[in-house]
Amino acid sequence: MAIPEYKACAGGESRTEHRRVRSSSAHSRSGCRMTPQTLAARPDRPRRLEALDLLRFMAAVSVVLYHYLFRGWQNNEFFSVRFDRGGEDFRYGYLGVELFFVISGFVIPLSCDGRSPREFVQSRITRLYPAYVLAVLLTWGVTSLFGSRTLHFSIVEMLVNLTMFQQFLGVRNVDGVYWTLTRELLFYVFIYLCLWRGWARRIEVPLAIWTLWSFAAPFLRLGKVAIVLTNADYSGYFIAGSTLFLLYRRGRSAFRLALLGGALALMHLQAAWKADRLIEATGHAHPWWLLVLINSAMVAGVAVLVFKEFRLWGGAVSAEIGAMTYPLYLLHAHLGYVALSRASDATKWFVATGTFAAVLLLSWFIVRYWERPLQRRIRALFARSADRPPVLAP
To answer: What are the C-alpha distances in Å from 131 to residues 212, 324, 327, 369, 393?
Structure first.
């Protein structure tokens, strides 16, 4: 899942006076496009929220452990070796995805505030596609050569997956985790519409409408397509993150606090619906009260890290770890299933640990030697086409 880094060119109202404009030269160095209006109203570029880098990495690790130690062996779907002792403790690791959505809800509005719709699209292309395209090719190649028939996909399916629009076209995901990218893309469409229509300054209103729609949609019997296309089954997480952004950048108001409360209630309802599906799929209990506690802790954790603005020792290290999150998430599942399908009861923990370490190392190589160089070229290409300095990807 694409969780952005926080190299943002942010606009909007400032939460405190120290974030206000100090000089136009600071904005020139940030790579943002300057206009008289932005010089007058835009706050300084926000500091990198280093703690969120580590939080999103922890979310990715929880998803990896969920797939390796619990989900993969359910009903012998991907491999037969079982992690009964210890593995079941990670059955809630899937909520790392929901934590991704909360973080995206916060950082995407933060990074795009003050940008044009075109700049926003360019930054998303630059951020998402380099690692994704390579992950699709690697996953398809490995599973085609070494995976079970469950993990085999045709060349046509692989090529469609390279567009990232496969679910909209009714084509299977080359890796099951790609479903979350569809949800991210739908959130980006929402943000794009807010930028295009000039609603970004009053984004609380579209967020409130989305919240009300999400409460009502499941009861209107509109079908799964309408639910998915409006993100009505995961919207609470994005809305909660976006409301935290509003509170962080623009201050408290009764409307924003009420919106956060509505988003939390929606999150809990959506988590309960998902738990019912998981109980049917795995036969393992997912009590609603525990999901409420975990959801609340996720939002509280993001809020504390953001509002306290934790400064970590070794910020460059945390940024590097955060950058590895996206390729780690994209690569871990089916590659891990191929490895674990060859494990025995005697070697399963060794194989799981070694696979995790190998995917981590591969993620670092991709960031260092593929993603970042390609992102620089894409930014330069966009800059030449627009005849202005490169747009920084968040």
So the answer is: 35, 10, 6, 11, 14
